[in-house]
Amino acid sequence: MTDPQPPVPPVPTPDAATPPTAPPAQPTYPAYGQPAAPGYYAPPTNTLAIIALILGFVVPLGGIICGHIALGQIKRTGEGGRGLALAGLILGYVFTAIIVLYIIGVIIFAVWMASMGGMYSTYPY
Length: 125
Fold this sequence. Notes:
52% helix, 3 helices, rod-shaped
């Protein structure tokens, strides 16, 4: 009366749809040396944006000029690098302002020292 084997589950008919498979847990990447699948490419970075960032530190006026040109190109072509161009612009403007304030300070100091020169003269008149 007791059956020693457990009951067998029913076999699906060939007309039944197969259950959907779960997506892979991690994204799949192409093998080494193989091109990536379409749609995975980021837009290329604008070269002038990179140059603007570098020149923002070294030659601030060059960073300002290249940054403005790069922003125009990025807007027109849709390339990447807008943040780099903005950083080059900001650095260029900040360092230019520091240099201008330094030059103004040197001129004020020179004028002040020239006006004080007669007060400490040891030569009799």
